[in-house]
Amino acid sequence: MAKNTQPVLKRARTLGIEPGFVGVYKKSKRKPKQIRRKQSNYALQLTEKQKVKFVYGILEKQLRNTFKKAEKMSGNVGENLLMLLEQRMDNVVYRLGLASTRREAKQLVSHAHFTLNGRKMNIPSAMVKVGDVIAVREKSLQSPKFKALAENLKGKAVPGWLELDAANMTGKMVALPSRSDIDAPIAEQLIVEFYSR
């Protein structure tokens, strides 16, 4: 499995976003360089595409395939793309607060610590549908990581399209995510223009 090993703070600074959008709450001690030249349309589109890949922790092929699915859906293609990315298993685990970053969520899902509708799930890119229930596996509940997490989940706020049962360490997708639920500073129309060239 391929993975991105670039330093998070450096990549976030290059793309011009806060590291908090990927779940990292550190500050860089380096001062950013001032770039004054005007960017071309292509450069703006490419930057937005790279931003989405970085925030959701996916590779080019995965993003392109997701874009093809979004094109086939009815409605705004850019919003459909972001909605499909939000429905990924690793992202839902992160949004529920069962992992501190999307990278950690991806690793926990890959190591089969979660179930989807009662069945063991180890595919981070699996799509979660409305009504699906995500739970921490019984075997994993005994690990120190999840025991410590159980205390932190009480009173945790989750997006409106998800429902969290902190006592049982389960979550449910109650609705499809909308554009207003996605807080990352992404101009999805530029991504549509990039892939429509």
Question: What would you say this structure looks like, in words?
Answer:
GO terms for molecular function: rRNA binding; structural constituent of ribosome. The longest helix is centred in the first third of the chain and has 16 residues, at 41-56. A 5-stranded antiparallel beta sheet has the order 2-1-3-5-4. The mean pLDDT is 85. Helices cover 44% and strands 9% of the residues. It has 197 residues and is of the alpha+beta class.
Helix-strand blueprint:
Blueprint: H1 8-15, H2 41-56, H3 60-72, H4 77-86, H5 89-96, H6 102-110, E1 114-116, E2 119-121, E3 133-136, H7 138-141, H8 144-153, E4 162-165, E5 170-173, H9 188-195
Antiparallel strand pairs: 1-2, 1-3, 3-5, 4-5
Helix pairs in contact: 2-9, 3-4, 4-9, 5-6
Organism: Candidatus Avidehalobacter gallistercoris
Protein name: Small ribosomal subunit protein uS4
Family: Belongs to the universal ribosomal protein uS4 family.
Percent range of helical residues: 40-55%
Spans where pLDDT lies below 50 across 5 or more residues: none
> Any idea what the shape is?
globular
Mean pLDDT over the residues: 85
Order of strands across the main sheet? 2-1-3-5-4
Could you tell me the radius of gyration in angstroms?
18 Å
Number of strands: 5
**Beta-sheet strand percentage?**
5-15%
Distance between the termini: 29 Å
Number of contiguous helices: 9
Q: Structural class, judged by helices and strands?
A: alpha+beta
Order of helices and strands: HHHHHHEEEHHEEH
What attributes characterize this protein structure?
RNA-binding; alpha+beta; five-stranded antiparallel beta sheet; 44% helix; single chain; 197 residues; S4_RNA-bd_sf; Ribosomal_uS4_N; rRNA-binding; Ribosomal_uS4
